[in-house]
Design a protein that fits this description.
Elements (H helix, E strand, L loop, with lengths): L2 E5 L2 E4 L4 E8 L2 E12 L6 E7 L4 E3 L7 E6 L4 E6 L8 E11 L4 E5 L3 E6 L1
Length: 120
C-alpha cells in the first residue's frame, strides 16, 4: 500500500501564506509526477500545480506568480508554497501522485485532503 500524508492546511487571512507538505509512504521505486488539486464546495476538483520526474512544472493560471510547487525526490515529498492567498483559494487541497511501485507497476494515489480557508 502507498499512502500520501498531507499537512499544512489551516485558516489564514487574505494576503497570508501557507506551506503544504505531502509525503509518500510505501514501497515506491520512483515518482512519475506529483501534484496538488483542490476542490471547493459545489465545484469540480481542479489541478493547482504539478511537478514531473523530468522536473517540469505546471500551474493553473489563477495561481501563477503566487504558488510554487517543489519536491524532494529523495524523501518522496512535494511542497506547495502558497503566497498572497485570496478567499477564492479556499478549498480542500489534495495531494496526488503517480508512482512506480518498488516491485513494478504504476499506481495513482490520492491524499486524504487538507482544508485551506482564506478569510477576507
Amino acid at each position: 500500500q502507498v499512502q500520501l500524508v498531507e499537512s499544512g492546511g489551516g485558516l489564514v487571512q487574505a494576503g497570508g501564506s501557507l506551506r503544504l507538505s505531502c509525503v509518500a509512504h510505501g514501497y515506491i521505486s520512483s515518482n512519475k509526477h506529483m501534484g496538488w488539486y483542490r476542490q471547493a464546495p459545489g465545484k469540480q476538483r481542479e489541478l493547482v500545480a504539478s511537478i514531473s520526474s523530468d522536473h517540469s512544472l505546471t500551474y493553473t493560471d489563477s495561481v501563477k506568480g503566487r504558488f510554487t510547487i517543489s519536491g524532494d525526490n529523495a524523501k518522496n515529498t512535494v511542497f506547495l508554497q502558497m503566497n498572497s492567498l485570496k478567499p477564492e483559494d479556499t478549498a480542500v487541497y489534495y495531494c496526488n501522485a503517480l508512482v512506480v511501485r518498488l516491485f513494478g507497476g504504476l499506481l495513482e494515489v490520492w491524499g486524504q485532503g487538507t482544508l485551506v480557508t482564506v478569510s477576507s
